[in-house]
């Protein structure tokens, strides 16, 4: 528990992303005087230039693929004169205008909620001058600085796209994932460098919108950190839909020519494209804001070191979100921020349960995961029985024209407790929830199997997988 009096405490939060604004809502509810310092807009990168816009772009591309699926089910588009329409076309100017407007609307909604509970938002650049004092430069556009006294400080400054000396983005043809929403025309040939989550998601989004896409992957397969069966499905889908995937191909440099880009690989090959999208990781925004000067410990990678309740090495200073490197998920950032305020202000709190975190990759189909992983079982760290059911056998999937994907469950060998799962399917982000409930509340496979599901439904495959893991004595 924290030692300050919530009703008389001043909380200053550096950063208005999910870690910051969720923390502010909790602190305000507990009666604290709360100030958020955010230069670029409430919601931070997650709402303005990352999660919200990227998933909106991906959703648009999903609609494009729905036309193809409908055609396979016997549905054809016709114009007003009865001629068949063969292709749907994306107007990227209109797509990105909607994406930016949606992000701005979400930011405005969060700002309104914060104002309703009395949280003050200061637009400026913040740094710590002591564990109990924050200096804001250019506060609300004014010259000079404003000093804010604080009983509790939360650092939620996030991260920024990693930039390499040999591949400098220009915002026009060489782009980071935060710059793509200013494009007005669809890239003719997009070279995506990096096959992690961001690279895979955006590569498929632009492929769906109509670009030729080349994915440069330094590893043997795309999504190297994910379930190998899931990654194999996604890579097969990529290739089948026309994406060129260059495996074991590490980028050495990216340069711009008059009307194109040249991506040079370490083995000397050159990949030409109209645009390049750099998705080679991120860097925490922790330097130059006074953290080291006041004694906050940073890891060698520059992330703020925190414990299970988001405390840093300095009393009264907490941290949340991508600047901590715990898990780069908006949901985790929000949980860290809420946990930090509950601990600091004396409310009931429990350590962050990372083994219950569900995550999703917004490819098509999506990949959702929770709990233990394939690697945990393969290495012997976890004793579990595993079952995988292809979605192609599910009656609802047949009706929807779904041919790719599966449900995989991990159950403790002996007790049958559900330890984790993987769902590869359209809207897997929704389907993983019952598996997450089972993992977090320690249900066994028989309890999941005996729970009614709608027939026909995709969730029926989750119950069926549980039935197949039934433990006999």
Considering the chains and any ligands shown, give keywords for the structure.
FAD/NAD(P)-binding domain; FAD/NAD-linked_Rdtase_dimer_sf; Enolase-like, domain 1; FAD/NAD-binding_dom; NAD(P)H-quinone dehydrogenase; 473 residues; single chain; alpha/beta; 3 domains; 12 helices; 5-stranded parallel beta sheet; flavoprotein; Pyr_nuc-diS_OxRdtase
Give a written overview of the molecule.
This protein has 3 domains: 6-47 and 98-160 and 283-354, FAD/NAD(P)-binding domain (3-Layer(bba) Sandwich), CATH 3.50.50.60; 174-280, FAD/NAD(P)-binding domain (3-Layer(bba) Sandwich); 365-468, Enolase-like, domain 1. The protein has 12 helices and 25 strands. The chain has helices spanning 18-29, 44-48, 51-72, 92-116, 197-209, 228-240, 330-344, 374-378, 395-400, 428-440, 445-449, 460-468, and strands spanning 10-14, 33-37, 77-78, 84-85, 120-122, 125-130, 133-137, 145-149, 152-155, 159-161, 174-176, 189-193, 212-216, 244-246, 251-256, 261-265, 270-273, 275-278, 282-284, 317-319, 358-361, 366-371, 384-390, 406-412, 418-425. The longest helix has 25 residues, at 92-116. The mean pLDDT is 94.
């Amino acid at each position: 528990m924290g030692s300050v009096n919530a009703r008389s405490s001043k909380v200053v939060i550096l950063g208005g992303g999910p870690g910051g604004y969720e923390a502010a809502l909790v602190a305000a509810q507990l009666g604290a005087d709360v100030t958020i310092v955010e230069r670029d807009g409430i919601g931070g990168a997650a709402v303005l230039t990352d999660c919200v816009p990227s998933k909106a772009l991906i959703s648009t591309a999903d609609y494009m693929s729905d036309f193809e699926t409908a055609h396979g089910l016997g549905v054809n588009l016709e114009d007003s004169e009865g001629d068949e329409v063969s292709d749907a076309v994306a107007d990227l100017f209109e797509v990105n205008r909607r994406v930016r407007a949606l992000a701005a609307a979400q930011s405005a909604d969060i700002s309104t909620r914060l104002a309703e509970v009395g949280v003050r938002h200061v637009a400026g650049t913040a740094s710590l001058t002591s564990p109990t004092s924050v200096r804001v430069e250019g506060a609300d556009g004014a010259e000079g600085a404003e000093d804010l006294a604080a009983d509790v400080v939360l650092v939620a400054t996030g991260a920024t796209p990693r930039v390499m000396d040999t591949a400098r983005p220009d915002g026009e043809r060489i782009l980071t994932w935060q710059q793509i929403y200013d494009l007005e025309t669809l890239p003719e040939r997009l070279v995506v460098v990096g096959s992690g989550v961001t690279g895979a998601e955006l590569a498929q989004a632009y492929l769906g919108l109509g670009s030729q896409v080349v994915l440069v992957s330094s590893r043997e397969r795309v999504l190297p950190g994910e379930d190998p069966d899931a990654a194999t499905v996604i890579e097969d889908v990529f290739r089948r839909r026309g994406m060129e995937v260059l495996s074991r191909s590490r980028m050495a440099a990216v340069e711009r020519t008059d009307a194109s880009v040249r991506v040079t690989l370490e083995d000397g090959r050159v990949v030409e494209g109209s645009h390049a999208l750099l998705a080679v990781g991120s860097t925490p925004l922790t330097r130059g804001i006074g953290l080291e000067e006041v004694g906050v410990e940073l890891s060698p990678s520059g992330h703020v070191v925190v414990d299970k309740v988001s405390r840093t090495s300095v009393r009264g200073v907490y941290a949340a979100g991508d600047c901590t490197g715990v898990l780069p998920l908006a949901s985790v950032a929000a949980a860290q921020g809420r946990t930090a305020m509950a601990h600091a202000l004396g409310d009931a709190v429990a350590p962050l349960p990372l083994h219950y975190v569900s995550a999703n990759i917004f490819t098509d189909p999506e990949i959702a995961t929770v709990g233990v992983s394939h690697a945990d079982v393969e290495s012997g760290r976890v004793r579990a029985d595993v079952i995988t059911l292809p979605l192609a056998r599910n009656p609802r999937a047949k009706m929807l024209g779904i041919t790719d994907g599966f449900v995989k469950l991990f159950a403790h060998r002996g007790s049958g407790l559900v330890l984790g799962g993987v769902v590869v399917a359209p809207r897997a982000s929704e389907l993983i929830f019952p598996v997450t409930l089972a993992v977090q509340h320690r249900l066994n496979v028989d309890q999941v199997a005996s729970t009614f599901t709608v027939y026909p439904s995709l969730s029926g495959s989750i119950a069926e997988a549980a039935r197949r893991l039934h433990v006999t004595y």
